[in-house]
Structure formats: C-alpha cells, structure tokens
Write a structure and sequence with these properties.
Blueprint: H1 3-22, H2 25-53, H3 62-93
Helix pairs in contact: 1-3, 2-3
C-alpha cells in the first residue's frame, strides 16, 4: 500500500474517533455512506479488471499486471471494509 493511502486511512480513523466522541449520528451516517460508495466503486473496478483478464490467453504477459492491480484494489477494499466495520462498531456502542 502506498504511504499516501495509509496516511489517508489513519486520518480517516482519527475522523471516525472524533465523530464518535462528538456523538453526531448524522455525520457518522454520512461518513458510512461515503465509505460504502467508495467500497462499491472498488468492487466495480475489480470486476472490470477481471473482465479484462478472463479473455486473455494464458501466455499473455498483461495477465500478471492485471492480477497485481486486482490485488492492490482488493487490499484497498479490505482497508475500507475495516473502516466501515470500526465505524459501525463505534455507532453500535453509542446506541
């Protein structure tokens, strides 16, 4: 993962914590919706990459590059899913 992305995830975690401490359910719900949208876009991108990958012959060198890209997208999606899980857990603790 790029340092920029990891820094973004750390900032997001801090934002979640601040929103949780502030007890603003509207802001928490808005952030959850934003993260769900981002996760949805990642899943769409992963599907598009697999659509590129599947028709290529097994000898095609481009296949490996596509799989590397898919792996990066999956890692990103996993981080976003973790943030969503933490956000939801924080919301459940406050209800």
């Amino acid at each position: 993962m790029s340092p920029h992305f990891l820094e973004e995830m750390l900032e997001l975690r801090i934002e979640i914590e601040e929103l949780r401490e502030g007890g603003d359910p509207v802001a928490l719900a808005a952030l959850e919706k934003q993260l769900q949208g981002r996760r949805g876009r990642l899943i769409t991108e992963i599907a598009a990459r697999f659509s590129e990958y599947e028709p290529l012959p097994s000898s095609e060198a481009k296949r490996r590059a596509i799989l590397v890209g898919v792996r990066q997208l999956l890692n990103t999606a996993r981080y976003i899913q973790g943030q969503l899980r933490d956000l939801r857990a924080d919301r459940e603790e406050n209800t």
